[in-house]
Amino acid sequence: MTDHLVAAEHEDWRLFLKKARANRSFQAGAAITLLIVFIAAVSLIWTPYDVAKLSIPDRLQGPSWSHWFGTDHFGRDIFSMIMEGSRNSIAVALIAVGIGIGIGVPLGCWAAARRGWIDEVFMRTSDIIFAFPALLSAVMITAIFGPGAVNAIIAIGIFNIPVFARVARGAALSLWPREFILAARASGKGPARITAEHILPNIANLLLVQGTIQFSLGILAEAGLSYVGLGAQPPATSWGRMLAEAQTMMAIAPQMAIAPGIAIIVTVLGLNLLGDGLRDVLDPKLRRER
Amino acid sequence: MLAYTARRLLIVLVTLLVASAIVFFVLEIVPGDPARLMLGLNATEDAVRALREQMGLNEPVLTRYLSWLSGMARGDFGESLTYSVPVTELIADRIVVSLPLALLALGLSTAIAIPVGIFTAARRGTRADTAAMAGTQLGIAIPNFWFALLLVYVFAVTLQWVPAGGFPGWDEGLWPGLRALILPAIALALPQAAILARVARSALLETLAEDYIRTARAKGLPANIVLWRHALRNAMIPVLTILGLQFAFLLAGTIIIENVFFLPGLGQLVFQAINQRDLIVVEGVVVLLVGTVVIVNFLVDLAYAWADPRLRRR
Amino acid sequence: MTAPILTIDKLDLAIGGVPILRSIDMVVEAGKVHALVGESGSGKSMTALTAMRLLPHGADAAGTLRFGDEDLLTATEERMCALRGDDIGMVFQEPMTALNPVKTIGEQVAEGIRWHTGANRPDAEARAAHMLERVGLPRARFPLDRYPHELSGGQRQRVVIAIACALRPKLLIADEPTTALDVVLQAQILDLLRELVAEDGMGLVLISHDLGVVAGMADDITILRRGEVQEAGHAVGVLRQQKHPYTQQLAEASAHVPQWAGRTKPADHWGLLEVQSLVRDYPGPRTGLFSRGEPFRAVDNVSFSVPPGRSVGLVGQSGCGKSTLARIVLALDKPTAGIVSFDGMETSRLNDHDAQMALARREMQVVFQDPYGSFNPRQTVERLVAEPLHLEEKPLSRTERRERIAFALEEVGMPADAMRRYPHEFSGGQRQRLAIARAIITRPKLVVCDEPVSALDVSIRAQILDLFAKLNDELGLAYLFITHDLTVARAITHEVMVMDHGRIVERGPTGELLDNPQTEAAQRLVAAAPDLNRAIEARIGNTMLHLPLEGRSATAEPRKAKPGAG
């Protein structure tokens, strides 16, 4: 891990584009991610059908020109529901990542800067949080405080905190003994200032990559929680709930389960590809020619 | 080595203690009086008060925590509020489903992932590698419960090879039990196998770039022998870490998968208990799972020391 | 003249289409040491890896590489496996990472023996034990079940040599085998290699950047530059006559002494930096659940002073505590006991937010070893060089800042437009200039230099030493100059202190001390230090006038390290 950061070099935008152009995984991932975000944005103002309106005569249709992905058991257009659901997935996962970065990164940087018992307490605490299987705890939290998108965000967000904190801490720890940090210390700069000026810019890449990973995990987790009825509540649409409804119709309308599943897979795949691509594009080990 | 083990063991104990406290006090702040919830809305104040007394809810929080803790140390997890049977008994009934499921899934995931990881690392850059890695990308992206639905549709509904859900119990014999667990185990294992295979591959590739691999090659060992003898053991550490984490994930993952297959496991128990505000059962199951995770991580730590002699001295 | 073992003929190498080697010719003979010399990027390591056929992916070699009667370039991979480790051995630069951390040293030495000879485990282990004994690791003290992390760097390099020589190869390739070691260990490892060559009659290709090492070891020499042979022939002749301009340039650079007006300036008598009875302990290793081993004393009762405008060298073997001492002086680490005072301020008692500390830091700056690691890769040179400026009492205006930066850059010989660029756009030597610019921008009185030239090629090193001399002349900077290289100490210091096991054992004017070391530690360093001219003299046999340093009496009263002496 050290070397990654160590050699991390200036964001040369042209070099970035050049490498990005050669990296298929980055391109595919970025394209998919942009597409999903675009769909989510469009769904704010327009969907082909109104997902709140039931139309029993149209129920359980297969894919057709008028209903691209078919209709569900209430006659709602599945494509429109997927569009609506993407908003929920993105919002939950994005805010959960935000919570993780917003709280975890400062904590991790602080532990790395202070070392000693603060660091020890920090590590042990994150060990303890990691000992709680995340999903189980998310189930517990949403069950206790009531199901709903907000509590799902909190539940997923809480478990993002130690993840980002550890990534930040590990990367920061490997930077602290480096000579440019020593030189900054010899210039009388304090830990907070060194963290802001020297540590954060050098771990940003790593956090970005971790961010895309946690984003995709968040989408999976949200889908799982919604699937067991602890995520988004009606009338909101979510991919997980669509799957839960599809399960009851599995024997007569298996196609109802296909579209939401594919939507989840494509989104997660896109984010993972983007993360992998970013790692390669930003990795100075590959960039440096020596 | 002894000091290392002792230190790890101490950490295990402290972690368990703190985790149990977190579970207890988090559930303590849950809105709603369990006694009232149990008796229903029409219960008289007196009845509620009497039940609170009987359940020991009027004791100070700390006293209750300590008595709960000492009970658990003796293997007594308390008595379920809704079923009026010992929690230990409830858990024992369910764990015979969840634990074999998690272990089966873990075994399956390892058995698939490690060979794939080794194969792709040894042949990096070939078409087989690219194809396998594309497969793992897809595998990671598949939500396991959706995959489970798909498996049910194909193998249970359409082909009717295995039951679509439910669990006959181990009394029926080993095979019927295993048959009921096969699909859930595959559903749990495949996405995990995809992650593990990628970790194994990248750990191996990283190890293969080390200086000592060049030393071994300079000894005259062919590349594949070097991979087996020198790279594999060094690449074990990240793989072991992920294995430890995955066990926790699989245990928790059973909660959702059990839902798909209607398996009477710990997940189902927890869901019911949460809905019925049967906190003592929730506490028991969560502490048990956390305890399992902590102990598995302890074993992973010991395995580290086995894999890396540098750790034995600490 | 013995038969050639390895004959390289018109070897060309390209990696990913980029030419690395051009038409290399070289002949290695049995029982001889053939030195392959060059600065970084000369292609010397690539030549060795080509001979081993262990090149990275995408490498494309042409020409012939004859080992005995076979052409190694066309041999099958199977055949190469049979040759590697059996007939051709290789030793690498970095002993700390060259051994597999999870296997015992016995396993690692025996592995090659078992692989090539098919010997059973006990036989192979017996041979491995014998080989380890030969490289100076007797079984009684270094049992076969030791793991690499239990050995020091020098000992690990011995294990690597044992692996390479276990089957008495005809050819041994040693790629900078001592570069990562300090001079004393270097001398020991070189002795060992010399013995093995003499006893086993193998050919040794010694890859090195250090002419001093080469002059003492090599029979033949090939000098490379940018993938091309510059000069080749008998080592002593080539190095003595220095016919080729590049050879001459290398030789001059490696013994370079800067033009330095301040060299003869008498010292002031007050100490700019005063260090008194300094001690630094590190907690011992954890031995039990709550117990720790004996604390390790890295700096042991050290006292000295640096007068203004003087350059004081601090030399010693690796691990002797030099760098710890430097950190304490820079107030980056707190001493366990003792006092550091700088310009009248007791910095060992001050905290980072004290106003006096800012003052002290402004007048005391630092230059580190690694020209790649001493800059934040994400900041422009302008911000990097300006880093210490925030210590100024009143904030500077933008133009003032710019002027100060441009001036500092000019002083170190860099153009002012370097400001807008990023550190990776500069070479190692240029980066070291930038590091010096950063150190002098606040007009400090003292610069602590921690091995500032040891990562640089010799010709660049000479230029940087010139710069240090110039800055001392022009700005009256005092240096605390930490180095393991006595040639560097001779070039740029007025006085030198020898550190050993945390103590300063000897101090005196540089020339005097290095010519006539009194303590055992100093003698050990001086004797081990490679020196081009001395080595050549020794080789051509008229060393009668020049007494071997080991022969001198070690019982003479050691000179006491006096604070403020000089």
UniProtKB/TrEMBL annotation, chain A:
<dbReference type="GO" id="GO:0055085">
    <property type="term" value="P:transmembrane transport"/>
</dbReference>
<feature type="transmembrane region" description="Helical">
    <location>
        <begin position="251"/>
        <end position="274"/>
    </location>
</feature>
<dbReference type="Pfam" id="PF00528">
    <property type="entry name" value="BPD_transp_1"/>
</dbReference>
<feature type="transmembrane region" description="Helical">
    <location>
        <begin position="90"/>
        <end position="113"/>
    </location>
</feature>
<feature type="domain" description="ABC transmembrane type-1">
    <location>
        <begin position="86"/>
        <end position="275"/>
    </location>
</feature>
<dbReference type="InterPro" id="IPR000515">
    <property type="entry name" value="MetI-like"/>
</dbReference>
<feature type="transmembrane region" description="Helical">
    <location>
        <begin position="28"/>
        <end position="49"/>
    </location>
</feature>
<dbReference type="GO" id="GO:0005886">
    <property type="term" value="C:plasma membrane"/>
</dbReference>
<keyword id="KW-0472">Membrane</keyword>
<keyword id="KW-0812">Transmembrane</keyword>
<dbReference type="InterPro" id="IPR050366">
    <property type="entry name" value="BP-dependent_transpt_permease"/>
</dbReference>
<comment type="similarity">
    <text>Belongs to the binding-protein-dependent transport system permease family.</text>
</comment>
<dbReference type="InterPro" id="IPR035906">
    <property type="entry name" value="MetI-like_sf"/>
</dbReference>
<keyword id="KW-1133">Transmembrane helix</keyword>
<protein>
    <submittedName>
        <fullName>ABC transporter permease</fullName>
    </submittedName>
</protein>
From TrEMBL, chain B:
<protein>
    <submittedName>
        <fullName>ABC transporter permease</fullName>
    </submittedName>
</protein>
<keyword id="KW-0472">Membrane</keyword>
<dbReference type="InterPro" id="IPR000515">
    <property type="entry name" value="MetI-like"/>
</dbReference>
<keyword id="KW-1003">Cell membrane</keyword>
<feature type="transmembrane region" description="Helical">
    <location>
        <begin position="95"/>
        <end position="119"/>
    </location>
</feature>
<dbReference type="GO" id="GO:0005886">
    <property type="term" value="C:plasma membrane"/>
</dbReference>
<dbReference type="GO" id="GO:0071916">
    <property type="term" value="F:dipeptide transmembrane transporter activity"/>
</dbReference>
<dbReference type="Pfam" id="PF00528">
    <property type="entry name" value="BPD_transp_1"/>
</dbReference>
<feature type="transmembrane region" description="Helical">
    <location>
        <begin position="235"/>
        <end position="257"/>
    </location>
</feature>
<feature type="transmembrane region" description="Helical">
    <location>
        <begin position="285"/>
        <end position="307"/>
    </location>
</feature>
<comment type="similarity">
    <text>Belongs to the binding-protein-dependent transport system permease family.</text>
</comment>
<feature type="domain" description="ABC transmembrane type-1">
    <location>
        <begin position="95"/>
        <end position="300"/>
    </location>
</feature>
<dbReference type="InterPro" id="IPR045621">
    <property type="entry name" value="BPD_transp_1_N"/>
</dbReference>
<feature type="transmembrane region" description="Helical">
    <location>
        <begin position="140"/>
        <end position="161"/>
    </location>
</feature>
<dbReference type="Pfam" id="PF19300">
    <property type="entry name" value="BPD_transp_1_N"/>
</dbReference>
UniProtKB/TrEMBL annotation, chain C:
<dbReference type="GO" id="GO:0005524">
    <property type="term" value="F:ATP binding"/>
</dbReference>
<protein>
    <submittedName>
        <fullName>ABC transporter ATP-binding protein</fullName>
    </submittedName>
</protein>
<dbReference type="Pfam" id="PF00005">
    <property type="entry name" value="ABC_tran"/>
</dbReference>
<keyword id="KW-0067">ATP-binding</keyword>
<dbReference type="InterPro" id="IPR003593">
    <property type="entry name" value="AAA+_ATPase"/>
</dbReference>
<keyword id="KW-0547">Nucleotide-binding</keyword>
<dbReference type="InterPro" id="IPR017871">
    <property type="entry name" value="ABC_transporter-like_CS"/>
</dbReference>
<feature type="domain" description="ABC transporter">
    <location>
        <begin position="273"/>
        <end position="526"/>
    </location>
</feature>
<dbReference type="GO" id="GO:0055085">
    <property type="term" value="P:transmembrane transport"/>
</dbReference>
<dbReference type="InterPro" id="IPR003439">
    <property type="entry name" value="ABC_transporter-like_ATP-bd"/>
</dbReference>
<dbReference type="InterPro" id="IPR050319">
    <property type="entry name" value="ABC_transp_ATP-bind"/>
</dbReference>
<dbReference type="InterPro" id="IPR027417">
    <property type="entry name" value="P-loop_NTPase"/>
</dbReference>
<keyword id="KW-0813">Transport</keyword>
<dbReference type="GO" id="GO:0016887">
    <property type="term" value="F:ATP hydrolysis activity"/>
</dbReference>
<feature type="domain" description="ABC transporter">
    <location>
        <begin position="6"/>
        <end position="251"/>
    </location>
</feature>
